[in-house]
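Tip: read the tokens left to right.
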């Protein structure tokens, strides 16, 4: 059942077995795993079913520290489906085994769970993301298919650079799962229900309710046996820090860890490949996809586990991107985009008409480019750029705090202080030198390393930026002195409060985090199904007039 809390007919007081705050990928996946069970679930979303500027403005905040190319406002969406409602990357790859391990050269790098423990939940996440039947640990046939599609492998040493491929989910997550939640009789999903307070008992040892408010001024209460914060790495920390009526430092923050260890996946240009036969690189590693078993497969290169251990570097991956060395005529660019969209099966009618108009206005250049392509000659010269995506070292100084500015609901806004370490900068340079060394070893070219990587610590005016993967602010650890949640994602010291978010990741690896977030959410759902009936019933309060 889906309800607009801003409507006068919506209930102001709700009781449920489970209350989930946030209807992004994590919250929706958690609710889906309870659909059809005997447990009642209330799913809260602050935004609506589509983008609304007024709701989105609640995400405005400030950023200091290392320049961060994503603003707090633009790097996430406040609407049903969360940030996956926008055209997201869709990459679905599990974290590597080394990402879970304790690495002596990476501080705070140990997880309280292993990758093997998470594998069954990765498999279940495949169904949610519509990724096909092959398990991640048995992709030999799929790999053979891909090798046939990539005709010119360059023979990089697997002890340094590893060929990998990732699957892409076709889903707009919120839109795809909305119908299933609407049909679930035991799930009540409220939109325009912004959580403005987390209420706890006198000892702050258990949550009792969440207070919600719409931008139209309606207020209400949700009481439950258990609560899950599933609203991302920034907003989850913001809610916990703001819940300071009983615990002055914020809920779950007795060891000053809430908001700390903020991580993203720093990304930036590593260099330009200089080679006598650039088409070999384009055929093998250009960041376009190949179709294998009706799924789009994207080639990429990872820094091997052996190289990470040998040089004591963070995890990293890179991709080769072809860029035009000269300006491309508008009609040619429109024609190429049209082909790419058609191949990716994402060609809405309005885009088709718009691109055809651009092609028609520039038909001369399109005809010349097509003739050159048919003759086996590129329409324009291309440049091969190497782009890197990097793991960020856990760093307690990189953090979310609360500013003194307030939003339209009266809540203090988030403030991000993004910090990098010497290990981060050394890892960026390490990937560049590994790639260059492999090119020279194979005698097929060299890497012209980007200027910004040549300085020792180029924090100011660098080419580096985040990619809006908000991780680490309520990190997982069985020791409350080094983490906010335990191995079951329960907030230390609060018996019935849990977190389902990228914020629980102790380390970030370099895989897109959404797939891991959903796998952890499915694991949490299994845990809660076993525990909910043992938790106390919510304590009702007197209903106000008009409540139902």
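Filled-in amino acids:
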């Amino acid at each position: 059942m889906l309800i607009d809390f801003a409507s006068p007919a919506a209930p102001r007081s709700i009781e449920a077995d489970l209350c989930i705050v946030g209807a992004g990928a994590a919250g929706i996946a958690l609710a889906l795993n309870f659909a059809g069970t005997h447990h009642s679930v209330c799913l809260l979303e602050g935004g609506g079913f589509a983008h609304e500027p007024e709701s989105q403005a609640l995400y405005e905040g400030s950023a200091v520290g290392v320049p961060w190319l994503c603003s707090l406002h633009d790097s996430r969406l406040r609407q049903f489906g969360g940030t996956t409602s926008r055209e997201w990357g869709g990459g679905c790859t599990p974290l590597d085994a080394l990402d879970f391990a304790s690495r002596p050269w990476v501080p705070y790098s140990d997880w309280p769970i292993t990758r093997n423990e998470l594998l069954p939940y990765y498999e279940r996440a495949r169904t949610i993301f519509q990724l096909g039947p092959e398990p991640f640990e048995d992709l030999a046939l799929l790999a053979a298919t891909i090798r046939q599609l990539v005709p010119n492998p360059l023979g990089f040493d697997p002890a340094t650079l590893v060929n990998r491929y990732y699957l892409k989910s076709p889903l707009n997550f919120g839109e795809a799962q909305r119908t299933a939640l609407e049909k679930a009789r035991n799930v009540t999903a409220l939109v325009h229900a912004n959580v403005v307070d987390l209420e706890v008992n006198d000892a702050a040892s258990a949550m009792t309710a969440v207070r919600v408010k719409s931008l139209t001024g309606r207020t209400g209460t949700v009481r439950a046996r258990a609560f899950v914060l599933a609203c991302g790495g920034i907003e989850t920390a913001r809610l916990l820090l703001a819940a300071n009526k009983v615990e002055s430092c914020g809920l779950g923050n007795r060891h000053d860890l809430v908001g700390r260890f903020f991580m993203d996946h720093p990304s930036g240009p590593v260099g330009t490949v200089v080679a006598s036969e650039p088409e070999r690189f384009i055929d093998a590693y250009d960041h376009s996809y190949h179709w294998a078993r009706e799924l789009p497969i994207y080639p990429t290169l990872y820094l091997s586990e052996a190289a990470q251990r040998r040089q004591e570097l963070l995890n990293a991956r890179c991709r080769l991107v072809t860029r035009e060395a000269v300006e491309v005529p508008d009609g040619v660019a429109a024609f190429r985009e049209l082909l790419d969209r058609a191949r990716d099966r994402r060609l809405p009618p309005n885009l088709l008409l718009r691109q055809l108009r651009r092609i028609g206005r520039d038909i001369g250049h399109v005809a010349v480019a097509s003739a050159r392509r048919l003759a086996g000659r590129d329409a324009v010269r291309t440049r091969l750029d190497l782009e890197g995506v990097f793991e960020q070292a856990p760093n307690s100084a990189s953090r979310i705090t609360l500013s003194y500015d307030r939003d339209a609901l009266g809540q203090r806004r988030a403030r991000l202080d993004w910090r990098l370490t010497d290990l981060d900068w050394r890892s960026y340079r390490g990937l560049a030198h590994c790639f260059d060394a492999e090119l020279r070893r194979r005698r097929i070219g060299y890497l012209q390393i980007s200027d910004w990587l040549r300085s020792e610590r180029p924090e100011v005016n660098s080419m580096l930026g985040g990619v809006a993967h908000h991780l680490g602010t309520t990190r997982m650890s069985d020791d409350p002195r080094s983490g906010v949640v335990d191995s079951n994602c329960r907030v230390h010291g609060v018996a019935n409060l849990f977190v389902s978010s990228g914020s629980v990741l102790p380390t970030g690896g370099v895989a897109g985090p959404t797939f891991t977030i959903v796998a952890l959410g499915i694991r949490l759902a299994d845990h809660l199904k076993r525990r909910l009936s043992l938790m106390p019933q919510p304590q009702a309060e007197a209903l106000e007039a008009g409540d139902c």
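The radius of gyration is 25 Å. Residues 154-166+267-325+381-391+421-458 form one domain.
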